[in-house]
Amino acid sequence: MSQKTVITCALTGLLTDPAVHNVPVTPKEMADHAEQAFNAGASIVHCHFRNQEKGLGHLPTWDLDTVADILSEIKARVPEIIICMSTGVVGPDISGPVACLERFKPEMAACNAGSLNYLKLRSDGSWAWPPTLFDNPLEKIKGFLDVMTANDVVPEFECFDSGIVRSVGLYQRNGMFKGAAHISLVMGVASGMPAKPEWLPLLVAEMPKGTHYQVIAVGRKEIWDLHRKCVELGGNVRTGLEDTFYRPDGEKAENNGVLVEALAKIVHEVGREIANPSEAREILGLR
Q: Please, how many CA atoms are within 13 Å of residue 86, restricted to the half-sphere of its CB?
């Protein structure tokens, strides 16, 4: 298994307007894109859930019936795929994602491991959106981890900055979660870690011993060298329309499948093999 790389596909993301970008929203669309990703080499799909009302598909939802419809459609189409559920919310109310974790008990779920001022500038220096604090204080993180532990869900710690990476080791030593750490390095957000391959060895050195890690690369053409470096170091990788709209040649991606195909090509060029879902479960220690 040491030569196997696990590929995740982040199908749709948060707030992206389906009228502008070809992100999946409906249960059928989510299943279509999950099947594309699986056929191209992904073992895991990272799932956000969108409002199903006409004209509101850019908005998130935690409606249990909607989430059930989406997950059922994905599993009916690709039974072996691993579900990693998003849990990200701004503010202290985590009741929506908690209800989903308790009802659906996915094998994995994201756990945002620290706070970030989420910023981006336009070319003229003005803010691309109102500056937002993505708040993840310790009590909020612990609330998610307690629910994940109780429901046998493996937390995948999303880390936007180097101090957040180091914090995961503190959570582990404090007993906030059990087993090996799973870290996602979110790189390329303007106010977080840059999408620079030379950062990776330094970040990996700060992780707890035995950590499973992957890169979530946000950006355009520059992200593909970062993915290549991660595979070379033995890490896992993630792509999808949540993370980028652009193929390595700079052209806009038509769907999730072409992004996973591009990432699978890099994995093979580095000389590693792609893990299937069964192998991914063994590598990552899933139930």
A: 20
